[in-house]
């Protein structure tokens, strides 16, 4: 009977073997035919700087063999790096375009890798508490950053006509049901966070429940949570597919299998020289529950 640590170590070993097979496939493809590859390395975030506001990001560029090497290293960037923040995850936007004939083999490999990543995550989540999860991972694989292991590789399913790299700097805005929020808060009353006095926590949550219940009937709730600046890529399919364009997170280089190269808009420095004007935010009140990013929202019912 395997212990949780032994199971986790075994799954990680299988993942490493699958990643080595992917690396061999891509390296052999590059040795026999031109592989169009490009990636945009981002500066490391120093330990302690992860909460500093992002005002500027200088983007580098690698092409050809250097981009392939950076990509294969980036796919296996799973451990803490000296001097780098463990809270600001590693990102390497980019792409590799491989011959269309390799798609069946590449698809099987990426599916196997992503399956193993999912199994690894599920095994970590079996540990009951946050502290137990942390101990399981770091006693078994010291220095591992789980988010970077969990990230799935992306093999685009259709031929692509254009890749447009850009920056996302948005907020998540989501409608919140009052009754569900009250239930969530009620359930949280008896689960104070670590290092928090139980009585203080009860008073805090009870106040939040009271604030929600006393809202006038016409006021709704919205979650408005800021999202850290991160690279994205707008993918436009070559075929007549609906929707014709899709936005994908550019955490790691995308894999494409096609013989005709897509047009590419490279990732530029942040902030872009020109930005699209957006409508002013309609949720401008002070937060009702700051720790959960919950805001009151009054719909505009004045339209005819």
Automatic annotation (TrEMBL):
Keyword annotations from UniProtKB, A to Z: Cytoplasm, DNA replication, DNA-binding
UniProt source species: Oceanisphaera psychrotolerans
SUPFAM superfamilies referenced in this protein's UniProt entry, alphabetically: Replication terminator protein (Tus)
A Pfam family annotated for this UniProt entry: Ter
An example Gene Ontology CC term for this record: cytoplasm
Name of the protein described by the UniProt record: DNA replication terminus site-binding protein
Superkingdom of origin organism: Bacteria
GO biological process: DNA replication termination
